[in-house]
Amino acid sequence: MSGTRRMSHRILIIDDDARYGAWLTAHVGAVLPDANVEFVGIPEFERRRGKVHFRDFDALLLAMNFGASPEDAAADGLDWLRRLRDQTDLPPIVAIAAGGNELTAVRAIRLGATDYLPKQLLTPARLGTSTTVPSRYRSSGRRSSTTTTAAADATGTRPASGSRRPTSPTSTR
């Protein structure tokens, strides 16, 4: 056996739409075939929230409506981020947003999301990057804005700081 051991990712998906949650679960499983993926709808999660051991998960995908703006009363995803940030041992959170805009993405990051992906821009590559990059930082004991920047770079979006990063192959790390 080689010196490297492939670790299985544990991913928790919380979604306000059971059909989309099932679809997302299947796609995460396809992108990360060794992952252990658990889907929980909002009503069930509300009942079990106090019993969930967040430290057992490498990433949490929060797929919800993030409203038309951060001030939108329908921005349930932002409300859930506020509620979740009190939890101990919380894994990196990837917000998968129905609705939302740049201001909503910034607010989600400030509320503790590690990455923000609009549902309409979700691709297998972006999904894979958004679930593995935060896991790598968690397993190394680091959780910082570097995770967001790495995931943003991989998805082709600008970092939240607004600065542009060079895109030529010679200018990477």
Strand fraction band? Answer: 15-25%
Radius of gyration: 16 Å
Which descriptor suits the 3D outline? globular
CATH superfamily: Response regulator
Give the low-pLDDT segments. Answer: 1-6, 142-173
Q: How many β-strand runs?
A: 5
Global structural class: alpha/beta
Outline of this structure?
The chain has 173 residues and is an alpha/beta fold.
Describe the structure in your own words.
By secondary structure, the protein is α/β, with parallel strands linked by helices. Helix 5 runs antiparallel to helix 6. Helices cover 38% and strands 18% of the residues. Strand 4, helix 4 and strand 5 form a beta-alpha-beta unit. The chain has one domain: 3-Layer(aba) Sandwich (Rossmann fold), CATH 3.40.50. The N terminus and C terminus are likely disordered.
